[in-house]
Design a protein that fits this description.
single chain; 234 residues; alpha/beta; TIM Barrel; 7-stranded parallel barrel; 41% helix; globular
Length: 234
């Protein structure tokens, strides 16, 4: 069994270097919810140093709420918004000799697209417009993956070991008890459960989790002990 281990980074949390040795894909904030040219460049440098795939982590233009407030706008505007962020990161990556492998939306944009077909299609179009070689990462069983497949975009189904789920497979609101799985041991246990479903291509850890570095280390160790090959998306 093979699995990618990704993490949302470049968000000015300060733990990127501690996390990077244990993951295989880095989703890098493109400046709209966090980060700037300096953090993007520094995170790309770290990813290159540790042999980690680099992907864009676009969001709503919402630094005030860290991209976690729902915003509603037209599909055309969403496509432009996402494409702009992919292009920003891709340009910096090119200067550093790195090619983007994937795109994973952030926060509210990610969760809204998981349920909204028009929004999901707009994101998929942005990804395809930039490059047919990019992989679109989305919640397993979501509209995001359906839209990508319909457009001929490569997709990767994602699971969240550090987050609680609703009965319908969506992520629990961060305002609810149990939405954030705190201990590294419980995060690792949940990861194994997700992998065993056979529906997951990549597991995501949040870089802003209080135990992000500990989670990454333990999760990598537990996956490998359970015979799971941890490797980047191809």
């Amino acid at each position: 069994m093979k699995i990618d281990l990704n993490c949302d980074l470049g968000e000015d949390i300060g733990n990127d270097e501690a996390i990077m040795p244990y993951i295989t894909s880095a989703n890098i904030a493109c400046g709209f919810h966090a980060g700037d040219e300096h953090t993007m460049r520094e995170t790309i440098y770290l990813a290159k140093r540790f042999g980690v795939n680099v992907g864009a982590h676009p969001s709503w233009k919402d630094r005030e709420n860290f991209g976690r407030k729902e915003i509603n706008t037209s599909p055309d505007e969403v496509e432009k918004l996402v494409l702009e962020q992919i292009q920003i990161l891709a340009a910096i990556a090119k200067e550093e000799g790195v090619t983007l492998t994937h795109v994973k939306p952030h926060g509210a944009l990610y969760n809204q697209a998981a349920k909204n077909s028009q929004l999901a299609s707009a994101i998929a179009w942005a990804v395809k417009t930039h490059s047919v070689d990019l992989i679109l990462v989305g919640l397993a069983g979501s509209r995001s993956l359906e839209a990508g497949r319909e457009m001929g975009v490569r997709v990767a189904a994602e699971g969240f070991p550090d987050r609680g789920y609703n009965a319908d497979g969506s992520l629990m609101s961060r305002h609810l008890p149990g939405a954030l799985i705190e201990s590294p041991e419980d995060v690792a246990k949940h990861a194994i459960e997700l992998v065993k479903t056979g529906r997951i291509d990549t597991l995501c850890l949040h870089g802003d989790h209080p135990n992000a570095a500990e989670n990454a280390k333990m999760l990598r160790e537990v996956l490998e002990k359970n015979g799971v090959e941890v490797r980047g998306l191809r």
